[in-house]
Amino acid sequence: MSAIVALPPQQVAALRADYDAAVSKKRLRFYAGLVIFSGLLLLAAHGAEVAPKVLIERIGNLTSYFGRIFRLDTGATVFSDPVEWMWGWKGWLVLLAETLLISYVGTLLGAFSAFLLNFFAAKNVTPALWLQFLARRYLEFCRTVPELVFALIFVIAFGLGPLPGVLAIAIHTTGALGKLYAEIVENIDMKPVEGVRATGAGWVQAMRYAVVPQVMAGFLSYTLLRFEINVRGASVMGFVGAGGIGQELIVAIRKFYYSDVSAILLLIVVTVFVIDIGPGMLRSRLFGATR
Prior knowledge:
Blueprint: H1 2-6, H2 9-47, H3 52-69, H4 82-85, H5 89-121, H6 129-144, H7 147-158, H8 162-186, H9 191-198, H10 203-235, H11 245-254, H12 258-290
Helix pairs in contact: 5-6, 5-8, 5-10, 5-12, 6-8, 7-8, 8-10, 9-10, 10-12, 11-12
């Protein structure tokens, strides 16, 4: 500050003028960007038929529904009689266990497929460009189609039950994890790979001894994260008949068993919380061990 004061008044004035001009220009760009963003947002909202008036007018329907699901048939709140509220907990827990198994098996199958395919999709280790192209397009297809669409197709093909849910989660997990795995591989240190290949080892040996040791911690972390996501996804697979607790939830919603809806939702939320905490701690340990 003292250096600026020591400058001649004309030079200080010129510097201040340049500074004010730069600030004004930056402020103008910000407000122009804000106006453009707001305009695009309003245009998108209009195209999507977002009606704030309808939201405000009918918000009472949402609050009243929550009021109904937390009341028993007698009119009392569900918290006043937990036994009556959780009358079907044994059957619901069995369906929750089925949901966890669906997500577990689907995650394992998807992670295994992603592990095999990601080395072909990663641009720095793929053995051929045409294999990279095919692998990436297949992974894109797997993660682009929603899980519920896959589940609906498999329900039509194989009938009701957990199998369609497992297959749907496995396919979607393959696409999601395959992309994440490939991105991890693309950021590895290539010197170990070059060293292994210099000894005369083949492509498979280079992947096994030079790439896998560098990426396994990241692979496991993303797999655990995907398992958390799949638990939530499997919870709604029952909406299309793919097994799990979601099938009981949609029945309760359709038959207006309000208190059953809140009880099942509570069990799902608690289960997801537990699943989130467990793998989250394990991921922290994995990354902590690699530092």
